[in-house]
Design a protein that fits this description.
The chain is mainly alpha-helical and 174 residues long. It is globular, with a radius of gyration of 17 Å. It has helices at residues 7-33, 37-53, 55-60, 64-86, 93-100, 108-123, 126-136, 141-148, 152-171.
Length: 174
């Protein structure tokens, strides 16, 4: 006897599809926030678990993509807070280079630019880093505002500050 899938299965399938559609963006957010590959993998699992736990709410959300990025944001913020409490040391440049070598970029110039950008993004304040990462994933101001639970005006201000700070960091080659 064949039975119709229950709503839990439908919600899980919905989460899996969202995960597949946005795994590149999630991976880039993880790369920008965590240099250690093992910790990044743990963070990825934490995010997937949080998405699975919120599957029904995610499926019912008016803007599921924004809701997904809110979960990614919240789990990442919690991870960063835990890391700061434990005072983990950042990776040295050689380990960061090794991590960035896994980028899909095939051209050396692009790879160097990606490395410089990731170093610069990591130097941004947490608030500016989150806004710029979401903007880099083509989320618009209302979606970013919903994810971070701030006003549209605050998003625009943070984006302007983040862009200015990022340009200065990139020009200084830091």
């Amino acid at each position: 006897m064949i039975t119709a899938p229950n709503s839990g299965q439908n919600a899980t399938n919905f989460v899996l599809k969202l995960w597949q559609q946005h795994q590149g963006a999630i991976g880039r957010a993880l790369l920008a926030n965590e240099a250690d590959p093992a910790a990044r993998q743990d963070l990825k699992q934490d995010i997937f678990l949080a998405l699975h736990q919120a599957a029904d709410r995610l499926k019912a959300a008016e803007m599921p993509r924004a809701y997904l990025f809110r979960i990614v944001h919240n789990v990442t913020v919690d991870h960063i807070a835990r890391a700061q409490r434990h005072k983990w040391q950042p990776l040295d440049d050689e380990l960061q280079q090794q991590m960035l070598d896994d980028c899909p970029s095939e051209l050396l110039g692009e790879q160097q630019q990606s490395q410089q950008l990731m170093r610069a993004v990591r130097q941004l304040s947490a608030a500016n880093r989150q806004v710029i990462l979401l903007a880099m994933e083509d989320l618009d101001a209302p979606e970013i505002a919903d994810i971070l639970q701030i006003s549209h005006g605050a998003v625009r201000v943070r984006l302007n500050r983040a862009k200015t700070e990022l340009m200065e960091l990139m020009q200084n080659g830091r």
